[in-house]
Amino acid sequence: MDNIVISARHVGKTFRLGDSQMTALKDLSLDVEENAFICIVGPSGCGKSTFLRMVAGLESASSGHIFYRNEPVRAPRREVGMVFQEYSLLPWRTVEDNVSLGLEFAGRSRGERRRAARDYLELVGLAAFGRAMPYELSGGMRQRVAIARALANEPDVLLMDEPFGALDAHTRILLQRELLRIWQKHRTTILFVTHGVDEAVYLADRVVVMSARPGEVRAVIPVDLARPRDRGDPAYARLTASILDMLDAGNQMRPAEADAAAPCREA
Question: Per the count of CB atoms within 10 A, which of 25, 64, 195, 263 is most buried?
Fold first, then answer.
C-alpha cells in the first residue's frame, strides 16, 4: 500500500544474558499508515522500546525486517525523529541552540537554524525561553523543547518513547493536549510507546496491544471516538477497561523469561 510509512515483518530480537539468551520480541508484524497516530501498550519488558529503537535504526533486528517507505531500515535517518523519556538536552546549550542541533548537523546556515528554532519554540509555547538554559526550565518545559527539537528537523515519522512518563499527572495531561494540537496541525506520523492505557486511548487512532515477553502483537484496536476526547465518556471508559483486561489476561511470564540481573548484549 502506498500510504504505509513504517512496515515491520516478522521482527524478532534476542539478547544474550551471560551464557543464555533472552527473546525480547517474537514475530512482530505491524503497518503504520501515513499521518496516523499509533500508540503501543504492553507489560514492562515486552520489547516496546526495543521495537521503537529498531524503527529508529538504533538497534538491529535479530530476525525479520523493518521498512521505511519500502526501504530497509539499517541506520538512523533524518526522516525519522525520536523523542525519549529522558529530555536528553545538552546542558551547555541554550534552549534555542538545543532545538537547532539537528539542523546544525545538517549544515543549515545560522540564520535558517535560528528562524526554525524560534518557529518551533513558538509552536510548543516556549517562544520567550529561547535564550534560557535547560536547568532553568521545568520538566514539562524541557520535554516541550525535546519535542520542538525533533519537529525542527521536519521528520516524516516521529517516534516517542514514553515521553511523558516522568511528568506529574497534570503536566502529562497538558502535554497530551499540546501534542494532539501539534499533530493535527502538521499531521506527522507518530508511533508512541506508553505504559498508560488511558494515555493511549486519549491520543491514538489505533492502539497496538502487546503480549508479555517475548513481545508479540496481541491486537490492534481502533479508537473510534471523536476528538477532543472526553475521559468521562462511557465509551471511553469501556474501551480503556477492555484494553486493561486484555493486558491483565496476558501479563503472565513463563518462569524461564523472568528478568535477569545481568546486563544484556545483542545475540
Answer: 25
